[in-house]
């Protein structure tokens, strides 16, 4: 594991051979939701010795419809994410959308995430880098793995070598995504941790009704293949009841299904890890 990840997970007991997990709700909906999810996932990961990073967006800026839920207010949401981290002694992450948001969010979280559609925004990448936080960049749906070296170079040039890359599929027509697992191998050649986004890669965007669809029944398939092809970490959005989630419910994993899935993935990881 990279040194910056070892530092990130230093408060947790984990198996060095395991993948790490980024998980949480899509967006901060309420204190009850974020605390409840973090409590459940923390306990599962502690038992399975999986390093765990809590994720929730403090604001959703990239919604299809103007009527979609965007958040409970930046300050309130960021304070709740910070509360999760302090209460459960786990690192936290959230996504940012503009250069001006980088320093603000960095006061509350340990890792800044760059959305896929913004992965080429130089000012955003540099602003995130200058906070000194770990920066995880989602690969754009319109890019291949090797091209992400330029995003990494921008962050490195700004004086930050703590970078991760997230695979989340490529656009396939107007309303679907497909995962090309070659991208995991190619991005690992850039010498950064590579994470598979198992839920957003199953989105069905640009639906006529203005709400993104998804195929959550395939989350296990995506995750198993990612571990088998060498992903260092997994990104899984989860919710107690995705049907009523305020964002991305159509592609999230139901929280009560997470433990069984992680048990299977730990076995796969163990089987492919050299003794």
Summarize it.
By secondary structure, the chain is an alpha/beta fold. Helix content is about 35%, strand content about 15%.
Mind explaining what this structure looks like?
Helix content is 35%, strand content 17%. The protein is an alpha/beta fold and 275 residues long. The chain has a single domain (3-269), classed as TIM Barrel. Strands 1-2-3-4-5-6-9-12 form an 8-stranded parallel barrel, surrounded by 7 helices. The chain has a two-stranded antiparallel ribbon with strand order 7-8. Strands 10-11 form a two-stranded antiparallel ribbon. Helix 2 runs parallel beside helix 3. The longest helix is centred in the first third of the chain and has 18 residues, at 31-48. 47% of the residues are buried.
């Amino acid at each position: 594991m990279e040194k910056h990840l070892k530092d990130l997970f230093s408060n947790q007991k984990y198996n060095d051979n395991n993948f790490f997990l980024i998980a949480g709700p899509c967006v901060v909906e309420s204190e009850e939701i974020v605390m409840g999810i973090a409590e459940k996932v923390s306990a599962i990961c502690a038992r399975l010795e999986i390093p765990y990073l809590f994720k929730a967006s403090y604001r959703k800026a990239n919604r299809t419809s103007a009527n979609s839920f965007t958040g409970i207010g930046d300050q309130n949401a960021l304070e709740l994410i910070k509360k999760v981290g302090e209460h459960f002694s786990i690192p936290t992450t959230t996504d940012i959308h503009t250069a001006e948001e980088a320093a603000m969010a960095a006061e509350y979280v340990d890792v800044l995430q760059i959305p896929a559609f913004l992965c080429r925004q130089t000012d955003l990448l540099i602003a995130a880098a200058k906070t000194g936080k770990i920066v995880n960049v989602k690969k754009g749906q319109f890019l291949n793995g090797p091209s992400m070296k330029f995003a990494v170079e921008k962050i490195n040039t700004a004086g930050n070598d703590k970078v991760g890359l997230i695979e989340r599929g490529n656009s396939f027509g107007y309303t679907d995504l497909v995962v090309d697992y070659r991208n995991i191998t190619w991005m690992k050649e850039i010498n950064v941790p590579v994470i598979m986004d198992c839920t957003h890669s199953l989105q069905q965007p640009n639906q006529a009704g203005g709400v993104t669809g998804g195929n959550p029944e395939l989350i296990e398939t995506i995750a198993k293949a990612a571990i088998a092809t060498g992903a260092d970490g997994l990104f899984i959005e989860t919710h107690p009841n995705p049907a009523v989630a305020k964002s991305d419910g159509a592609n999230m994993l139901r929280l009560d299904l997470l433990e069984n899935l992680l048990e299977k993935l730990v076995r796969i990881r163990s089987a492919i890890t050299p003794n």
